[in-house]
Every structure is written in C-alpha cells, then in structure tokens.
Specification:
Largest sheet: 2 strands, parallel
Helix content: 55-70%
Distance between the termini: 41 Å
Number of helices: 4
Amino acid sequence: IAYKAGGVLETLDEKSAVFFQSPTVGALIAAVQEFCSRAETFERDYLTQRAAMFSRKNFVNQMQQHIQSIF
C-alpha cells in the first residue's frame, strides 16, 4: 500500500502494490480495504522477482557494471 507519487513509482507497479491517489485518511482507508479484498491475487513469483531486482547482490552487480563501463 503506497501513495502513488515520487520514488515509489520506480519500484512498485499495479501488480506489486495497491496505490492511493491522495494523501488523505479516506484514500488510505480505501487502499487498505482494496488490499484486503485482493490480497490473494498478488502473484508470489512476481513479487519475489520484483524484490530481487533491489537485492544487495543485484545492486553490487549493477554498480560494478556501471563502473566498468566508465573505465
């Protein structure tokens, strides 16, 4: 459950999160209710793959590739 703005849009998508559009209590309550009604529809494999994109190992690999590309 995330406010749909800023950096969160770089890491989450509609298949991995429930977004709320405005920073209000009502919008957050609606997002929690939506999550509860569709929690079983999130695909475990997709979520696992998505999380792996942000692992320490992946970060180190990408950083090494970037540094090597510079030199």
